[in-house]
């Protein structure tokens, strides 16, 4: 099962002629936001990337604004089906819209970060790296997890000590899961809530600059 992304609801950093042949960085917003939310990060990102900010496919329950990748009401539910459905939709969009790019990386916040990691688990060879901001790895096994663990793609995971949104069991699971399956660059930011700081963005830039160098 997958949930389709709206190709008309994608913000691109440049037009098609200027982005063809460049590595693509896909931005995935968090719960209750939209494709404009992370688009403001572009000045902090390496200019070598073409950037696409995609919109999540679901509308959260009223009165919450924006869009969501999957229902947030049952985070204690360890069934990965909802996250996997959203990730499958992202993979389908990437196969269609990002075919002219030599490499694809993902950068997600909160729900978007969870979907980014899940997409990498679905297609370990499709995505070059993931930036996980205030997110988590979804519990449960997927068929290609062993392949991912062998490939160990680079992942940046940043989170704050004052983040009270992500349940503790998900943080603990992610702490164990990421080093076993990825080449992890992790940083915990004292006092940071469920948000992104200037220091974190600086660390993300260092991580992404390394990816640019590796991609050539």
From TrEMBL:
Keywords: Hydrolase. Pfam families: Abhydrolase_2. One of its GO terms (molecular function) is hydrolase activity. The keyword Hydrolase applies. It comes from the Bacteria. Residues 18-210 form the Phospholipase/carboxylesterase/thioesterase domain. Belongs to the AB hydrolase superfamily. AB hydrolase 2 family. This is Alpha/beta hydrolase.
